[in-house]
């Protein structure tokens, strides 16, 4: 069974007393998508949006410069930049290493992949062909994810150590994205990552994550997803992998969510987590900006997975017949010298203030709209020039000044 969810949008019209119509979260359960993949789980972002507004807001972007399609390579000339130099200062990003925790703290050795659609999308979005900017953007998402997994609401902390990176100007041979169709897209990536994860080459990572700009859909093309991962897939050879669509900083929330699945966390309010609310937490089955902490169910799921790896939880229900490397999160097996997390000296929200977060998310809604002042530190709304239309994108990044005299520290 695969779960899909639809995000919430607001627009001006005949509506409530505030002049806004709210499309509620809707849960669609798709039961006919590869019924054998009972451990396959996806977070979706259905395009349930008012006419005239498209969910990804990709039209009217600047033309991608300096890309040689015939050779599948990037010319290293910068071209003429417009005023949209969103991530130019990321080129000067510096690494900062976080200490590996003790007790129930574990470290995921992470392999990051960016496919052709993602490279092309960011070259166009950033009006740049700098690989450093793409790398910096992914490091920022990893930094945010690292912060999320150290949130006080999570008792067992998880660290991340990037040990491998691949950026595909052309998708490699042997890999097929199946036009974004799941689960075949995920299966193809997992197979490719497994073929590259060679201990003899000093790679040997714990989890492989592919960043894409492709539309992720089911075989019927009637459900759209933001990310996908195998439940409890970490520490296995062929299921420790995920795909994340990361066209803006909400990708960090999706990255956090999919890593949670891979580490044994199920959706809140579903199956073994019925006692927890289905909204308001990182493992909520609905997308939106309110996911800023971990539920008690996620805490139990993670601890159950860790104790299973430790050999003290033989009745763990989500093994799905797979073989696990039970010391994989306790030992460093890669010879690659990478840092646990990448960041500048400031928090993400200090480097990327809310006005930048809106401008990067959408050209049509580039301005911060703080009409919901009571929840502004939890929900970031971006509006058009007239402020008559707005879009709820994600929670302000940690370190954002979200109200006068207040900084979002989740």
Automatic annotation (TrEMBL):
Gene Ontology terms: biological process: proteolysis
InterPro entries in the cross-refs: Peptidase_M12B
Segment forming the signal sequence: none
Active site: 258
Residue stretches making up the Peptidase M12B domain: 106-307
Keywords tagged on the record: Hydrolase, Metal-binding, Metalloprotease, Protease, Zinc
Superkingdom to which the source organism belongs: Eukaryota
Single GO molecular function: metal ion binding
Binding site for Zn(2+): 257, 261, 267
Protein's name in the database: Peptidase M12B domain-containing protein
Organism whose genome encodes this protein: Allacma fusca
């Amino acid at each position: 069974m695969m779960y899909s969810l639809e995000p919430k949008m607001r627009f001006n019209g005949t509506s409530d007393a505030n002049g806004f119509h709210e499309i509620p979260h809707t849960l669609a359960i798709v039961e006919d998508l590869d019924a054998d993949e009972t451990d396959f789980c996806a977070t979706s972002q259905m395009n349930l949006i008012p006419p005239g507004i498209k969910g990804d807001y990709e039209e009217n972007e600047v033309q991608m410069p300096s890309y040689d399609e015939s050779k599948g390579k990037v010319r290293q000339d910068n071209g003429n930049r417009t005023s949209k130099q969103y991530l130019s200062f990321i080129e000067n990003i510096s690494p900062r290493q976080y200490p590996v925790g003790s007790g129930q703290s574990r470290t995921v050795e992470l392999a990051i992949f960016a496919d052709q659609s993602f490279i092309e999308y960011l070259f166009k979005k950033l009006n740049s062909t700098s690989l450093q900017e793409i790398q910096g953007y992914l490091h920022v998402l990893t930094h945010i994810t690292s912060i999320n997994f150290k949130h006080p609401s999570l008792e067992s902390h998880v660290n991340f150590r990037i040990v491998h990176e691949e950026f595909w100007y052309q998708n490699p041979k042997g890999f097929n994205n199946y036009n974004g169709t799941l689960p075949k897209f995920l299966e193809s990536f997992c197979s490719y990552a497994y073929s590259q994860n060679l201990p003899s080459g000093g790679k040997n990572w714990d989890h492989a994550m592919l960043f894409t700009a492709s539309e992720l859909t089911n075989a019927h093309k009637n459900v759209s997803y933001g990310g996908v991962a195998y439940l409890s897939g970490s520490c296995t050879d062929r299921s420790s992998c995920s795909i994340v669509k990361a066209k803006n900083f909400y990708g960090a929330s999706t990255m956090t969510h999919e890593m949670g699945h891979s580490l044994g966390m199920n959706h809140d309010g579903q199956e073994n987590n019925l006692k927890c609310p289905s909204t308001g937490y990182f493992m909520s089955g609905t997308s939106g900006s309110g996911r800023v902490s971990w539920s008690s169910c996620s805490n139990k799921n993670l601890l159950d997975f860790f104790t299973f790896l430790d050999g003290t939880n033989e009745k763990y229900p989500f093994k799905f017949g797979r073989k696990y490397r039970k010391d994989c999160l306790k030992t460093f097996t890669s010879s690659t010298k990478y840092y646990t997390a990448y960041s500048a000296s400031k928090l993400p929200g200090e480097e990327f203030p809310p006005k930048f977060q809106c401008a990067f998310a959408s050209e049509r809604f580039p301005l911060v709209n703080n009409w919901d002042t009571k929840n502004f530190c939890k929900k970031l709304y971006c509006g058009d020039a007239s402020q008559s239309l707005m879009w709820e994108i994600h929670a302000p990044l940690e370190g954002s000044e979200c109200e006068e005299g207040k900084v979002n520290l989740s």
